[in-house]
Amino acid sequence: MSSHKQYRLDLDRIEASLREVQADFDRISEKLLMRREPITDQIIANLLEGYAYVDQLLEDGIEVFSPSGLDHILELNHIVLCGVNDSLRLEYGSHLLETRRRFADGIGAIADYYEAKRHKAAPRRAAGVYVLSVSQPQLFLEGNHRTGALVASYILVQEGLPPFVLTPKNAVAYFNPSTLIKWRDKQKFLDRQYYLKKYRRVLQDFFEETLDKRFRRSLRLDKDVTAKD
């Protein structure tokens, strides 16, 4: 059995952790390199929809880095910005259309990177894709960090590892490198060959050290409960 069929995401525990970060955000903000907007209820709701979408992609065995799967990455960005609200998406139709154009320009290089690194460990691939998405020029107009976290979670859980989820304990160690990555341009030689490689290693180590099994649940347990019912 392949790894991504053995585990699903525990959305209740993911929500609980995001709520803890929300409640503790003033303390977290004091340690950040750059001021961030507070985590609102709507941001949490949209992120949870995003994690649920990742969960379904994994359950369905969809490979998002295949040519036919790339639009699912775009959909994750739409979800973190607008949720699954069709009327809201209509309201922001021109923004989403421009986002689609930007995505079309940038996703090819990221998909090529992923294919070239397919044999590498999942935390390295997740960190590499995140860095390429968040650095300049960014993959999306908005929501690059949140979408990047969801795509990283997909890569990790596909290999049987826990998803990446913000916690009060890991928030500073996630936000600060993300800010530094955003300031770098992958089209500039020094940024690409030195800074972004350095941040990729930092993020890879971060994933390896902070992933938490609380946020995944075994499908075997689901099946056992269903059998007893």
* H-E order: EHHHHHHHHHHEH
Strand content: under 5%
CATH A-level architecture: Orthogonal Bundle
CATH superfamily heading: Fido-like domain
Q: Which structural category fits the helices and strands?
A: mainly alpha
- Biggest sheet, open or closed, and with what strands and sense? 2 strands, antiparallel
- The geometry reads as globular
CATH domain class: Mainly Alpha
Low-confidence stretches: 1-5, 223-229
N-to-C span: 24 Å
Query: How many structural domains in the coordinates?
Result: 1
Find the count of extended strands (DSSP E, 2+ residues).
2
Mean pLDDT: 93
| Lateral arrangement of strands in the main beta sheet | 1-2
User: How many helical elements?
Assistant: 11
What is the fold-level CATH name, i.e. the topology?
A: Fic-like fold
Organism: Solidesulfovibrio magneticus (strain ATCC 700980 / DSM 13731 / RS-1)
Keywords: Coiled coil
Coiled coil: 4-31
Protein name: Fido domain-containing protein
Topology:
Layout: E1 7-9, H1 11-23, H2 25-29, H3 41-59, H4 71-82, H5 86-91, H6 93-116, H7 122-134, H8 144-158, H9 171-182, H10 189-210, E2 216-218, H11 219-228
Antiparallel strand pairs: 1-2
